[in-house]
Amino acid sequence: MIGAIIGDIVGSIYEFNNIKTKDFNLCDERMDFTDDSILTIATADWLLHGGESGEYYFRYASRYPCPMGGYGGRFSRWLQQSSEGIAEPYNSCGNGSAMRVSPVGWFFDTEEETLEAAKLSAECTHNHPEGIKGAQATALAIFLARHNIPVQEIAQRIEKDFGYDLSMPIDEIRLRYSWGGLDGMVDGGTCQGSVPQAISCALQATDFEDAVRNAISIGGDSDTIGCISGAIAQALFGVPQNLVDYAMSLLPSDLKAVVEEFNKRI
Predict the structure, then answer these.
(1) For the chain, which terminal residue's Cβ has fewer other Cβ atoms within 10 angstroms, N or C?
(2) How far apart are CA 138 and CA 131, in angstroms?
(3) Which pLDDT tens digit goes with each residue over 235-260?
(4) Which of 60, 58, 2, 16 is nearest to 216 (CA)?
(5) φ and ψ at 178, to 5 degrees?
(6) Phi/psi at 112 (5° precision)
(7) 10 Å Cβ neighbour count for 127?
(8) What total number of domains does the chain contain?
(9) Angle of helix 35-49 relative to helix 53-63, nearest 10 degrees?
């Protein structure tokens, strides 16, 4: 999941200051991890130790204020409502379900287990069909990539199983994409408005760094798109050690310990 954390960190300063170029520094003193990394690590902790996913998301979000930005409005209300017991999900199709799911793609031996766990990770908050679909598509892309399935076959599976269109070249997406989604037609903060583009940024990349640069360069919800793309790119290409070291240096020791435990487990 370190690829997801790196993508989140790199995108952290561009979420509300979009750039439309791949020419930028991957490491910048202004960058830091956001809620995307915190909840991704919460997912890893859930997989390692069991229980209900919503308990982990509540616990982590309550314990760790975001160094960059903050938690989404509806998720923040869910946190408040969960203070005396985990609240009901709120039918969200936001891309938060996809940005936190990457550990699921690494943890299981079968597609069936991966898809079921992705559903469970999403539906405690994001129980809208599109919210679940975004989590499952991201997790499946990681699962297939780490089993060395060719990128063309991964794209075909994601298109067939989830109805996402992954055919558009990144250069065209960059011209047409924003916080309003592709051509301003779908909210870019939703799964349906950002997950297909994030997956494409990874599948059309030449290496890990290129995937993250693709993700940031298209604009929109940059940290989350970077998080999703980075997660898939890790499974496709691996991650340069200097970027691993950079990301780990920004995490508090207890979050770093979960990442290390998860890495040892898988």
Answers:
(1) C
(2) 11
(3) 999 999 999 999 999 999 999 999 99
(4) 16
(5) -160, -170
(6) -60, -45
(7) 17
(8) 1
(9) 140
Tell me whether residue 125 is exposed, middle or buried, using C-beta atoms within 10 angstroms of its C-beta: 0 to 12, 13 to 18, 19 or more.
buried
**Is 23 within a domain?**
no
Can you tell me the distance from the alpha carbon of 39 to that of 29, in angstroms, rounded to the nearest whole number?
22
CATH number of domain containing 156: 1.10.4080.10
Share of the chain above pLDDT 90, in %: 96
pLDDT over threshold 80, residue 69: no
Q: Does any domain span residue 57?
A: yes
Assigned domain for 26 exists: no
Q: Which domain holds residue 234?
A: 2-14+32-265
Does 96 map to a domain?
A: yes
pTM score, whole prediction: 0.97
Q: How far apart, in whole angstroms, are the C-alpha atoms of residue 144 and residue 190?
A: 23
The pLDDT of residue 189 is 95
How far are the Cα atoms of 9, 62, 221, 222 from residue 242, in angstroms, in the given order? 14, 31, 25, 22
Contact 71, 35 (CB under 8 A): yes
Q: Is 188 exposed, middle or buried (0-12, 13-18, 19+ CB in 10 A)?
A: buried
User: Within 10 A of 91 (CB to CB), how many other CB atoms are there?
Assistant: 13
